[in-house]
Amino acid sequence: MAKKTGPKHRLCRRLGECIWGSPRCPSIKRPVPPGQHGQNMRRKNSVYGTQLLEKQKIRTHYGLLERQMRKTFNKAQRMGGVTGTNLLALLETRLDCVIYRMGFATSIPAARQLVNHGHIMVDGKKVDIPSFHVQADKTISIREKSRKIPMIADGAANPAHKAPEYIERSANSFEGKVVATPNLETIPFKADTQAVIGFYSR
Q1: Are 98 and 108 in contact (CB under 8 A)?
Q2: Which residues have a Cβ under 8 Å from the Cβ of 69 and sit 6 or more positions away?
Q3: Interstrand relation of 125-126 and 120-122 (parallel, antiparallel or unpaired)
Q4: C-beta separation of 27 from 13 below 8 A
Q5: Are 96 and 115 in contact (CB under 8 A)?
Q6: Distance CA 125, CA 127 (A)
Q7: pLDDT category of residue 1 using cuts at 50, 70 and 90
Q8: What is the CB-side half-sphere exposure of residue 201 using CA atoms within 13 A?
Q9: Which domains are present in the chain?
């Protein structure tokens, strides 16, 4: 699968804000695109440009390819209800994102690597598919042999961030659950989903 390599915070500067919430992100001090002409490139976007930018922010945060993003959006539309809320809920309940929100990894890409390498179990069975949809009350746990990995052990004892209210994990525990459906108020990552709907509705 194709993936982005190189300094990830260059993407934040290109998008105009920090996508991962790091207080040390260069985009906080330099909110202009990278490169020698970046200072002169920030101009008012068209409606299409604004919609594209918001879609790219979501794609970048969750680490999706365009095909994955489009597929998830189409599924959100078919679910009924509010498409924007459905979209973010589907992305937040991907296994790699759940592992990140639980604090076992320092980023979604790092969580994806843990899943790919077979360190994660769902209801006692190994799952190595990052896009696996985690249903409510499914028990997500770290494989016994993997609990001594420094990043996992540190995340269990001292998670880098507080888990959102739709995720339940006890202190120093190597397992947790999604106990509710994520919504726009409880999801830590804030996005303009109406702009994304406009982009894909063209």
Answers
A1: no
A2: 55, 58, 59
A3: antiparallel
A4: yes
A5: yes
A6: 6
A7: very low
A8: 11
A9: 9-89+190-200 (1.10.1050.10), 94-178 (3.10.290.10)
Strand partners, 167: 178
pLDDT digits (tens, 9 = 90+) for 82-134: 999 999 999 999 999 999 999 999 889 999 999 999 999 999 999 999 999 99
> What is the model's pTM?
0.85
Q: Residue 189 corresponds to which tokens in the numbers above? A: 């990552």
Provide the pairing of β-strand 125-126 with 175-178. unpaired
At CA 136, angle to CA 130 and CA 133, rounded to 5? 20
Query: Which two tokens mark 124?
Result: 């006692």
Concatenating the DSSP letter of every residue in the chain gives -----S-THHHHHHHTS-SS--TT-HHHH--S-SSTTHHHH-----HHHHHHHHHHHHHHHHT--HHHHHHHHHHHHHT-S-HHHHHHHHHHTBHHHHHHHHTSSSSHHHHHHHHHTT-EEETTEE---TT-B--TTPEEEE-GGGTTSHHHHHHHHS-SSPPPTTEE--TT-SEEEE-S---TTT-SS---HHHHHHHHT-
